[in-house]
Specification:
six-stranded parallel sheet, globular, alpha/beta
Length: 187
């Protein structure tokens, strides 16, 4: 086994935030959604700090609303690509945006784990990307669906790491300006 395949490198990674929208988030258990939003925010700040591309999707905006304001404010973009397919890669605009990142590794956060995150992760793996699912930055309405989706994605070849593992692996060491900026987010 080659341990290098488990290591994340900031120069080869991008963040994909999937469908963390108002009405969809409201259907989640409050404590689970609070954790997912907090950890997605940490991943966004980590990506911004290291100049990593961030791609955001919105599923059927008319029915599910817009990206949660707490995350949209961190992203600094007014409009995110809307999709109707559950799988982000099936939407031509998002597929182009993913490819234009020029990265081989995609870190995934979003909802729902067993639907849009799941299908997108499988397609990215099939397309030759390395996929890292932030286990505590993805959510489903039911814990059973979340748990089995993560298990299945791991068996399919995705890496499943907590947000703190992802951020600290990208940081690489303490005592840097980057560390000082991100460390308070984990309290």
């Amino acid at each position: 086994m080659n341990a290098d395949q488990f290591i994340l490198k900031r120069e080869d990674s991008a963040l994909l935030v999937i469908d963390i929208q108002e009405r969809l988030a409201a259907a989640m258990q409050e404590s689970v959604m609070k954790q997912a939003v907090k950890n997605t925010g940490i991943l966004i700040e980590t990506a911004k700090l290291f100049g990593m591309p961030v791609v955001v999707s919105e599923q059927y905006r008319k029915g599910l609303g817009e990206t949660l304001p707490a995350l949209a404010a961190r992203l600094g973009r007014a409009v995110f690509p809307e999709k109707l397919h559950f799988d982000c890669t099936k939407d031509e605009g998002l597929r182009r945006e993913i490819a234009s990142c020029g990265r081989k590794t995609f870190i995934l956060a979003g909802i729902e784990t067993h639907v849009c995150v799941f299908q997108t992760a499988l397609s990215l793996l099939a397309d030759g990307y390395r996929v890292v699912v932030a286990s505590d930055a993805v959510a489903s309405r039911r814990k059973h669906d979340w748990r089995y989706a993560l298990r299945s994605l791991e068996r399919a070849g995705a890496l499943v790491y907590p947000t703190e593992t992802i951020s600290f692996m990208l940081l690489e060491k303490a005592g840097t300006d980057e560390f000082k900026k991100l460390a308070p987010l984990f309290k």
